[in-house]
Structure formats: structure tokens, C-alpha cells
Write a structure and sequence with these properties.
homodimer; globular; 8 strands; about 210 residues; binds nickel (II) ion; metal-binding (chains A, B); 9 helices; TIM Barrel; thiamine biosynthesis (chains A, B)
Chain lengths: ~210, ~210
């Protein structure tokens, strides 16, 4: 599973943007629309609730044979046997997480500078998420990464690079032109009325750039 | 380590009650005063910060040869090789946690009813924390457990029972008279100016009840 991961259309969840819809159904619609990997991000909820949501989403991602990544919480990743974990700069240190997660799980690390990107690679990351490439309201603490820096990071690191932050239908081409392996999207899919179509349309824009 | 744990004076941390003092020093003072086991409870902080605090407290509890328990977060417990984990009713299910934690680590479970207490025992808990036995401002969602129910739970379950919730110098004897194996304390130690003395004075009150 771990090799040849398709990072091209990377969905990150956020229950705050889906209104009163069910997150499990929303993720399934996004899978129908063609997202290639899913990350569950839950902040400010109980461990029990996170665990229950993650177990249900895992059933759906397994059905569509798409890898499921857990944001921040190694305990949840282990408990539901997720395909991987994604950590940010305010989460557990990458090398500690890699040791607990084992060599076979996907480990992603957020980076906003060249230094963070190279350190993540050194410390055992399988891919890095670089952003925010465009201004975003999803993550209050997001630092902005220029498209030039994104391009340079992609040139320097050997592991896959996923661009994240404010990516939508209008700017996705700019992000992809930097040569990244994928783009991570939240609102541009999950806030839409027709989630499957939103994913499909992003995927269409992305096709010409896919090697 | 796991057998013959001394639960008698069980310190639960809360950085909100220590003012501008350092949590590591406060825990060390409590250990000097005689607390027999320490649980780190952190809510609303980053994983990285929780991890950093826990690593430093582990050095101190190791120095005093006192077990260190992590509240809720199995990831932190595994990462710092804590002596155990304590889960509440809104955390990960007990049997899931036991499997990930392994048989050798201490697993504590919060219970506020006889049913929860018996289920915790069945699901693999090593001890239960029962409360809140007195009204408390530390945990907003705390349900009240009468001293009669506490006494009955202690009679019914075979694993150690620790009373928690609003226990202080004035009411500690009432809690101990129920036959519990220990009392858990937050503010009655950590909010005091002289933390070591506060722990010592609680321990003195507790001596006549110690088997
Ligand atoms: Ni003893």
C-alpha cells in the first residue's frame, strides 16, 4: 500500500464546512468524485467521537480502496488501523511518531519552509504537505508559502510534495504548475452542494499535469 | 511495577490552578510532599506541548519512583513510555485502549455508576476512578457520585478504587471511610502556596485508614 500512493487529489476533512450534512456521506461523495486520498482532521472533539468518526470513514475509504490518513492523533491512527498519520509542526516530533507508527504506515508532515521540508524528509516522512499556498480561513495559524518556494521545495526534496491551503477551482492550476505531486483541498470540495461534482471538476483541471 | 501500585494519594495535574508557577516544579513539590502516583491531564493544548510537558514530568516521577499516568492520550503515553493511561467515558473504549497499551501498563477508567465500574473491570481496567464525590469546578461535566454509591462500588469491584472530585483537607476523611484505595486530588494540592505541605497534610489525614 505504501508505495505508489496517489496524492493527486487529497481531501482533508473539516466538519465546520459541511453544514448539517453527515461527514461520512460527504466523504463518500468525494470518493465517488475521485479524491485519491483522505485525511481526517478533527479539532476540539472528544477522543471517543474522533474514534467513532474515524472507524466509519475507514469503512468507506476501504470500500473505495483509497488510503486514509489521520491528522495529528497517533492514538486514533493506531486504534482504527489507518493507512497513515499526518503531523504538523505543533504535533508530536516526526522521528518519535515514525518509531511508534512503524515503517509500513504513511507518515506525512506539514512544512512551510525549506528547512522544515528537509528536516521532515530526514526524520522519516513519506510525503510533505506544503502551505498555505493561498490564503485560507480553515487553519487560523497557517503561514503563507509562495509558489516559488513551493517549486523550490519540490525540486529539493525526494519525497512527494502536496500543496495545501486555499486551493480551489480557480487557482488549482497555479499550484499544479509548480510540479507538486498533488493538491490538498478542504472547502473547494466539502463546502459545495454537489461534492462529487466539485471533486470531479478539480480532477479535470488536474489531468493535464498528471505524469 | 504494575502490581502493588500505591493509589493512596493520587495527584491529577491542572495547569489552570497553579497560577504562573511551572507545572514541572509543582509536581516535584507534590512528590516531595508524598503523592504516590501522578496523572497528567492536559486539555486544549497542542500535542507537541503535551508531549514536551509529559517528557519532563516523567523525569521527575522516575526520580521519585512514582508511577506516571497520562490522561486520555494513548499517543502521549506510548511516546514517553508512561506507566499507564487513564481514560474517561468520552475517551477511547477501554478494550481498544488495553489492546494498544499492552498488558503490562496501568489502565485506569473513570466511572460514575455501578454499571460503568463493572464494565471497566470487565474491559481490562487495572483501577477505576470514581466521582465526582464532591462538587468540583475542575471538570465541568462531572457527575456527582454519592458516598453510598462509592462504598457499594468498592464492595462490588475487585480492582482498586480511587475516589475523585472536590476532595480536600476538610472532606478527605469522609471519602476514605468508604474503604477506597486512594483519593485523587487536584486543587487541594496544586492550588496551594505550599504544595509539599498540602500533600503532607492530606497524607497525615489519610494514615489511619491505610491498611
Ligand atoms: Ni501502601
Amino acid at each position: 500500500m505504501k508505495n505508489n500512493i496517489d496524492y493527486s487529489l487529497y481531501l482533508v476533512t473539516d466538519r465546520e464546512v459541511i453544514g448539517n450534512r453527515n461527514i461520512i456521506s460527504c466523504v463518500e461523495e468525494a470518493l465517488i468524485g475521485g479524491v485519491t486520498i483522505v485525511q481526517i482532521r478533527e479539532k476540539n472533539t472528544s477522543t471517543k467521537n474522533f474514534y467513532n468518526i474515524a472507524i466509519k470513514i475507514k469503512e468507506v475509504t476501504d470500500k473505495y480502496k483509497v488510503p486514509l490518513i489521520i491528522n495529528d492523533r497517533l492514538d486514533i491512527a493506531l486504534a482504527i488501523n489507518a493507512d497513515g498519520l499526518h503531523v504538523g509542526q505543533s504535533d508530536m516530533p516526526t522521528e518519535v511518531v515514525r518509531q511508534l507508527l512503524g515503517p509500513d504506515k504513511i507518515l506525512g508532515v506539514s512544512a512551510a519552509t525549506m528547512e522544515e521540508a528537509l528536516k521532515a524528509q530526514r526524520d522519516g516522512a513519506d510525503y510533505i504537505g506544503v502551505g498555505a499556498v493561498f490564503p485560507t480561513s480553515n487553519k487560523n495559524d497557517a503561514r503563507i508559502v509562495s509558489l516559488d518556494l513551493l517549486r523550490n521545495i519540490k525540486k529539493e526534496v525526494k519525497i512527494p510534495v502536496v500543496a495545501i491551503g486555499g486551493i480551489n477551482q480557480r487557482n488549482i492550476v497555479k499550484a499544479m504548475e509548480t510540479g507538486v505531486d498533488g493538491v490538498a483541498v478542504i472547502s473547494a470540495i466539502l463546502s459545495k452542494e454537489n461534492i462529487a461534482d466539485a471533486a470531479r471538476n478539480l480532477k479535470k483541471k488536474w489531468q493535464p499535469y498528471h505524469l
